[in-house]
Amino acid sequence: MNTILSIGVAQTSPRLGDLQANLAQCEHAVRKAREQKLDLLVFPELSLTGYHLRDMVATVALRLDAPEMAQLKEWSREVALVVGLVEESPDYRFYNAAAHFSGGELQYIHRKVYLPTYGMFDEQRYFARGNRVQAFDLPWGRASLLICEDLWHPSTAYLAALDRALLVICPSSSPLRGISDGEAQDDNARYWEMINRTYAETFGLFLVYANRVGFEDGVGFWGGSEILDPFGRRLAKGKYYEEDFITAELSLEAVRRKRIVAPLLRDEDLDLTINELRRIRGR
């Protein structure tokens, strides 16, 4: 097993509702990833469609046998991909999804579990909810996909870690949410960077956060994608407010060293957690 994973994040600005333009943008990033001999390239949430889709959801949705999916499979023969898209299920439900392609095949797809409906967000009106958080296998080790708001719920990172994920990948479309305390950095950015570091260090895993940039309907997205190691240290950081392409090498040895120093997952009491959740659920 290869113990080094060369990973990249394409911090893009998708065009709302324009699948072909966003596919072309994806192809450009894939070419760059090939040139740099990356193993895996990650795109932001809904990178093929843009975020504020509303009634366009059904128009841009892709079934698993769509020609666009075949194109992504083909590109993945040389570099594995994680791409954000709208998935249409056989029973005509629409999901905010992140798909992992590798070796010319669709290997795994995660459907966003937590759909925000507060403030500027209205996802539950247009998307069905996913109902699963689990890890999947890469040649390098196990990984888990969580989409944006999913990662704001501590249970998802916890479940991923318990399912032996060594890497959490989080495609995101995080908007600007205001600046406070007289600082230049966006409040949303500060919060994301805090939880990314906390989860990486607490669970002793790598964390890849792929956020988009650009504007839709007057809403801006702040970018700032980042790759962190199991000690919570940044390996790469994307620019704020503009497109970027970042890379890092992830070594399994870093996970080993962190989990020797802090064997929290080894000591986790699953029965205690399950029993207490049942008690709380029944209260």
Architecture overview:
- The protein is of the alpha/beta class.
- The chain has a single domain (4-282), classed as Nitrilase/N-carbamoyl-D-aminoacid amidohydrolase.
- It has helices spanning 19-35, 57-60, 67-75, 154-162, 187-203, 252-261, 264-267, 270-282; strands spanning 4-11, 40-42, 80-88, 94-102, 105-111, 135-137, 142-145, 167-172, 206-211, 213-216, 219-222, 226-228, 234-237, 244-251.
- A six-stranded mixed beta sheet has the order 5-4-3-2-1-14.
- The longest helix has 17 residues, at 19-35.
- The N and C termini lie far apart (47 Å).
- 42% of the residues are buried.
- The mean pLDDT is 95.
Give the overall shape, derived from the CA principal axes. globular
Helix content: 25-40%
Question: Can you tell me the CATH topology?
Answer: Nitrilase/N-carbamoyl-D-aminoacid amidohydrolase
- E-strand count: 14
Give the integer mean of the pLDDT values: 95
The CATH homologous superfamily: Carbon-nitrogen hydrolase
Provide the β-strand percentage band: 25-35%
Please describe the biggest sheet, giving its number of strands, its sense, and whether it closes into a barrel: 6 strands, mixed
The helix count comes to: 8
The order of strands across the largest sheet is 5-4-3-2-1-14
Features:
single chain; 283 residues; Nitrilase/N-carbamoyl-D-aminoacid amidohydrolase; six-stranded mixed sheet; 8 helices
SSE blueprint:
Elements: E1 4-11, H1 19-35, E2 40-42, H2 57-60, H3 67-75, E3 80-88, E4 94-102, E5 105-111, E6 135-137, E7 142-145, H4 154-162, E8 167-172, H5 187-203, E9 206-211, E10 213-216, E11 219-222, E12 226-228, E13 234-237, E14 244-251, H6 252-261, H7 264-267, H8 270-282
Parallel strand pairs: 1-2, 2-3, 7-8, 8-9
Antiparallel strand pairs: 1-14, 3-4, 4-5, 6-7, 9-12, 10-11, 12-13
